Amino acid sequence: VLAAISAAKNQMQDPRAYADAAGDYYQQQVAQVYRLYQQQLKANNAVDFDDLLLLCVRLLEEFPDVLSYYQERFQHILVDEYQDTNHLQNRWIFLLAGRWRNLCVVGDDDQGIYSWRGADIRNILEFERQYPDTRVIKLEQNYRSTGNILAAAYEVIRRNVSRKEKKLWTAAGPGDKVMQYVALDENRSEEH
């Protein structure tokens, strides 16, 4: 239930908007809990982590003088692991960078593994459309892995839909051949 509430907040849905969109029984129950949860937070003069982001975005959107102050203060913004940002974080970053447009994001769409906690891979995939003056610099040399590992990884990820094409390479040589390890259960395995 907390994950559903977190997802709603990251989509900027307050309890009423979530309740209006609730389609099935589970979502209707979450909507009731969400409303009560927010009431309890307010009664205790508290916020949760998602509220910290949501309230900052609302503050910047609703008070142009506050937005202007922070845009002036943060004229250059760097965001690492951009593939792991959610909708709300993306909105916050764009608001802050709106005046100077000195925004550098670093990330790899092939490493987007946090969708279960709200990360939206579209933030990095659509970045160039949202920021048309973007200059992309591909960092394709890998310093940790051998050639055989990179080749195997490429065969796994090259079929990902909507990915940005890249071909990693290494100066480390081919290395050992990749082996497949099959675990029959937590106690037994066989090597291939």
Give a concise summary.
This protein is mainly alpha-helical. It is built from nine helices and four strands. Helix 4 packs across helix 5.
What does this structure look like?
The structure is a single chain. The chain starts with a helix and ends with a strand. The model has no long low-confidence stretch (mean pLDDT 93). Helix content is 46%, strand content 6%. A hairpin with a 5-residue loop joins strand 3 (181-183) and strand 4. It is mostly helical and 192 residues long. It is built from nine helices and four strands; from the N terminus they run H-H-H-H-H-E-H-E-H-H-H-E-E. It has a two-stranded parallel sheet. A two-stranded antiparallel ribbon has the order 3-4. The chain has helices at residues 2-10, 15-21, 25-43, 49-62, 64-73, 87-97, 122-125, 127-130, 147-157; strands at 77-79, 103-105, 181-183, 189-191. It is flat, with a radius of gyration of 22 Å.
Strand content: 5-15%
Global outline: flat
* DSSP, total strands: 4
Helix content bin: 40-55%
Counting H and I runs of at least 4 residues, what is the number of helices? 9
Strand order of the largest sheet: 1-2
Q: Any low-confidence stretches, pLDDT <50, length ≥5?
A: none
Q: What would you call the structural class?
A: mainly alpha
Order of helices and strands: HHHHHEHEHHHEE
Mean pLDDT: 93
- Based on CA atoms alone, the radius of gyration comes out at 22 Å
